[in-house]
Design brief:
The complex is a heterodimer of chains A (296) and B (573). Chain A is an all-alpha fold and 296 residues long. Chain A has a single domain, classed as ABC transporter involved in vitamin B12 uptake, BtuC, CATH 1.10.3470. In chain A, 70% of the residues lie in helices and 3% in strands. Chain A has eleven helices and two strands. Chain A has a two-stranded antiparallel ribbon. In chain B, the strands form three sheets. A six-stranded mixed β-sheet of chain B has the order 8-9-10-5-11-12, with helices on both faces. In chain B, strand 9 (492-496), helix 21 (504-521) and strand 10 form a beta-alpha-beta unit. Chain B has two domains: 38-239, no CATH class; 346-570, Rossmann fold (3-Layer(aba) Sandwich). Chain B has helices at residues 15-34, 37-62, 71-86, 91-113, 120-140, 142-145, 158-181, 184-194, 196-201, 206-232, 242-255, 260-281, 284-299, 303-311, 316-321, 384-392, 414-418, 437-446, 456-459, 474-487, 504-521, 532-538, 556-560, 563-570, and strands spanning 151-152, 234-235, 346-355, 358-368, 373-377, 399-404, 407-408, 422-424, 492-496, 524-528, 541-546, 549-554. Helix content of chain B is 57%, strand content 11%. Classes of the chains: A mainly alpha (296), B alpha/beta (573).
Chain lengths: 296, 573
């Protein structure tokens, strides 16, 4: 019984983290068509911000990380990505790979490769169904999921979200309707990047923070996005749950390396058996109207 | 537009190539006599790394398949040699085992990551996962790999090392270049990179070409790792890790992808620079590399060699083919497939196709005999283009059966259908815009289904070698597509509004050209057309499609007088 509860809690906390990663990545991927291979490095940046500013109290530090994430996102989009979209996904993918090198090696040059640690603001454990579990982990998972829910609400239920989706669907038409497309594109990327930095900041007390720490998060986040249904953000979150579940269960029974091998193999197989219907430019919504009757 | 006289076909190994090959051979032979031992060791390493970069370039530069975890294959080769040496097994055996393993892994990864419906980005992430896994595996499988400490590989001495590396690298590159890059593989890789869709309708499987490129590229990377092991001296998990994977991308990008000189230059400059600058700026060196990489991707996608060759005056056609030989005597005397006696050209039975809940084709039955010219007409949204796509294999039917030249092709990929002699033209011309018209024609002929004598009106493109196909006017692009499709020698051709956008006179001329193609070459034509004058000129039979059903079939006059047809076009009056 205890084992089951521990497992469930571990899945839940990992799910919170992966969901935050997947929603940021899915936002950038689905809305801009950019495979953000620097997503893991943005997580690493978030963790190092928390480490470097250890003197600032935790919550203001988190806010600073959010701010740095937004600024970083704007800078990357303006300096690196702008004008590359027309050259296709490979150009933007490689450019983001360049960004990931710069972030990783920058952190390496500044902080070195010895693992750094960040102290969690809450050290207490909490008793759940007879199992003692670190309270901080539960809180960040809840916070992460709340943020994910907020992103979904904004994207699908507000005028701002509509503006973003419209711009993505047809940039020219949107600009004719008075929406500044560059602003929307930059904003979307900045938010996606900020979510990654925030995820890293929240997760930092649980990590051995090294410049390489981010690279390992790219594959799970990307697979979560791939597993989702037809480019929808909720699909990516569902994918994050599947990845978190598989990864936790495998890690319980196998050693680290073997668990990773099996996890990647399983995910690759899952993606291989259903690669179809994945159109990232199409945002999913419930049809409100019946399909037009085909006139006889 | 100037039409040049047809030049002589390019030989596989031209004079300039002999010069370059001899120069490389002499340079390798002479280097130990000129260089002191430390620079020589560095050059040895640069050569081995250059081979690694050459390997990556085979997939990235030639076929457009990017792998961001290629060090997994390189490290596999290095570990193969190192582990064999440690356990007293001949190193060659270790290298061979590594090659076999890497071919198997690459084949699996390629089949999944490059499948017809896989996203192009899937490949990038799977290869990344591969390098992360390999690195972690090497770290934790202590009994085999000695963990993070790595395995020491003894060096046979600087000069021996250099000659062994130099000769092997030279041979591998020369053989792959002559046999593959200057042959069928090189031509197909260029075609797939420029226009997958057109290539598959010329009977070449894009997936097979890309998977071949990826497996080949993994094999060369593994060989490079095996050669590099004694040069590096220590084989550690970093050899197959993410930093190494990143470095090789930088070498190829900076030097210039798609060129042999470029990848070796990139590997050489960066490796040698690392030794000399690494001391001065330490960890910042890799950061600088990252910035350089971004700048290259953003501002100079063809790298140093691309910048340099942009300054040279090269003929349009040579720059366009990027080292591949497009022309080849590929056309067989006999067609590649002889249909059974009495087989219909196309037979569609009970075919349905829906997109989600919306039915487009509602049970179409249609038989087209060989040698017929059939026009498909119908109001907008009738499903004409969808029907062509179903026959050509670009769409799979929801239900029903499709036969082409006597074979049940319902579940076949487009390139397999093309192998039966099925040609295809699109509503928007699908060409190789970055090749010259002559090269477009040459590729179609090289992959031809059967040899045909082309009418002079279409053959004009075969000599047009001093501009790119993308520079042609829309009308000329359309004619070029028709010329390509016919030069390929199809048995049956599907055409989607060939006269759209042409003037009335031009479209009538096109109609008579198509009639003569039908008469001279015996091609069966299925034509979607809106212009009724052309339909009258062209069609043996007219098929009217409305709301996804065949409304009626007959001669033009029969069809025109049919009440249902008037209703479908004009609405009930």
């Amino acid at each position: 019984m205890d084992a089951v509860v521990t497992l469930a809690l571990s899945v839940f906390t990992l799910f919170g983290f992966y969901a935050l990663l997947a929603v940021g990545m899915g936002l950038i991927f689905g809305q801009l068509g950019v495979v953000n291979v620097a997503h893991g490095e943005l997580v690493m940046v978030g963790a190092f911000v928390m480490f470097a500013l250890a003197d600032v109290p935790f919550l203001p530090r988190l806010l600073l990380a959010v701010l740095i994430g937004l600024v970083l996102g704007v800078v990357i989009e303006r300096l690196v990505l702008s004008n590359l979209y027309e050259r296709g996904f490979l150009a933007t993918l490689l450019a983001m790979w360049g960004v990931s090198i710069v972030l990783r090696e920058g952190a390496n040059a500044i902080f070195g490769s010895t693992p750094a640690s960040v102290r969690a603001p809450i050290q207490e454990n909490i008793e759940i169904l007879g199992v003692s579990y670190p309270l901080y982990r539960l809180i960040i998972a809840v916070v992460a999921l709340a943020i994910v829910a907020a992103v979904l609400l904004v994207t699908y239920r507000t005028k701002l979200g509509l503006v973003v989706r419209a711009t993505v669907d047809n940039r020219d038409m949107a600009s004719v309707l008075g929406i500044p497309p560059r602003l929307v594109v930059t904003g979307t990327f900045a938010v996606g990047a900020m979510l990654a930095v925030l995820a890293g900041a929240l997760q930092s007390p649980l990590l051995g923070v090294t410049p390489m720490v981010g690279a390992a998060f790219l594959a799970p986040a990307f697979f979560a996005v791939l597993l989702g249904r037809a480019g929808s953000l909720p699909g990516a979150i569902f994918g994050a749950f599947v990845v978190a579940l598989l990864s936790t269960v495998l890690r319980t029974y196998l050693n680290e390396t073997l668990a990773q091998v099996v996890l990647f193999a399983l995910l690759i197989v899952l993606v291989a058996v259903r690669p179809n219907g994945i159109d990232w430019r199409k945002v999913q919504w419930k049809p409100r109207t019946q399909p037009a009757q085909v006139a006889a | 537009m100037r039409v040049t006289s047809p030049s002589r076909p390019e030989p596989r190994v031209a004079t300039r190539h002999w010069v370059a090959l001899s120069a490389a051979a002499v340079a390798i032979a002479a280097a130990p006599f000129v260089l002191p031992s430390y620079p020589l060791a560095l050059l040895t390493l640069a050569l081995a790394y250059g081979l690694f970069a050459f390997g990556l370039d085979l997939s990235w530069g030639r076929a457009g398949v990017v792998s961001i975890g290629h060090a997994a294959f390189f490290g596999l080769g290095a570990y193969g040699v190192a582990i064999a040496g440690q356990n007293g097994v001949p190193q060659l055996l270790g290298a061979v085992a590594a090659l076999v393993l890497s071919a198997v892994v690459a084949l699996i990864v390629g089949r999944i990551g490059l499948g017809p419906r896989a996203l192009a980005s899937t490949m990038a992430v799977i290869t990344l996962a591969l390098t992360l896994l390999a690195e972690q595996g090497a770290r934790s499988w202590l009994s085999l790999t000695n963990g993070s400490n790595g395995i020491y590989v003894p060096s046979p001495g600087v000069v021996t090392n250099f000659y062994v590396t130099g000769i092997l690298v030279f041979l591998i590159v020369a053989v792959i270049w002559v046999v593959l890059l200057r042959g069928r593989f090189g031509r197909r890789a260029v075609a797939v990179r420029f226009n997958e869709h057109r290539t598959e309708h010329l009977g070449v499987s894009p997936m097979r070409t890309k998977v071949t490129a990826f497996v080949l590229s993994a094999l060369v990377a593994t060989a490079a790792g095996a050669i590099a092991a004694p040069v590096m001296g220590l084989v550690s998990p970093a050899t197959l890790g993410i930093v190494m994977s990143t470095q090789v991308l930088v070498w190829v990008a900076v030097g210039g992808k798609g060129t042999i000189f470029g990848v070796f230059l990139g590997a050489g400059v960066v490796t040698i620079g690392q030794q000399y600058l690494g001391d001065a700026i330490g960890a910042w060196y890799l950061l600088v590399l990252g910035v350089v990489f971004i700048l290259v991707v953003k501002f100079a996608p063809s790298g140093l060699v691309g910048i340099a060759s942009g300054l040279l005056r090269r003929s349009v056609s040579r720059a366009a083919s990027q080292g591949a030989v497009i022309a080849s005597n590929g056309a067989p005397d006999a067609p590649k497939h002889i249909p059974a006696e009495g087989a219909a050209a196309v037979r569609v039975s009970q075919v349905q196709k829906s997109f989600g809940p919306v039915p487009i084709i509602n049970g179409v039955d249609l038989t087209i005999q060989r040698g017929e010219v059939v026009c498909l007409i119908g109001p907008n949204g009738a499903g004409k283009t969808t029907l062509l796509n179903l026959i050509a294999g670009d769409l799979a039917p929801t239900s029903g059966r499709i036969e082409v030249l006597g074979e049940d092709v319902t579940n076949w990929a487009p390139h397999r259908r093309a192998h039966l002699g099925l040609g295809r033209l699109f509503q928007v011309p699908s060409l190789y815009p970055d090749l010259t018209p002559a090269q477009n024609m040459a590729f179609a002929r090289a992959e031809a289904f059967r040899a045909v004598e082309l009418p002079a009106e279409l053959d004009r493109f075969s000599a047009m070698d001093d501009l790119l196909a993308s520079d042609l006017s829309l009308a000329d692009q359309r004619s070029l597509e028709l010329a390509m499709a016919i030069a390929w020698g199809p048995e049956v051709v599907l055409l989607d509004e060939p006269a759209a956008g042409l003037s009335h006179e031009d479209s009538l001329r096109l109609a008579s050209l198509m009639r003569s193609l039908n008469g001279q070459l015996g091609c069966t034509l299925l034509v979607v057309e809106h212009d009724m004058d052309i339909v009258r000129e062209l069609a043996d039979r007219v098929v009217v499609l409305a709301n996804g059903r065949v409304l009626t079939v007959g001669t033009m006059d029969e069809v025109v007088s049919h009440d249902d047809v008037r209703t479908a076009y004009l609405g009930a009056v």
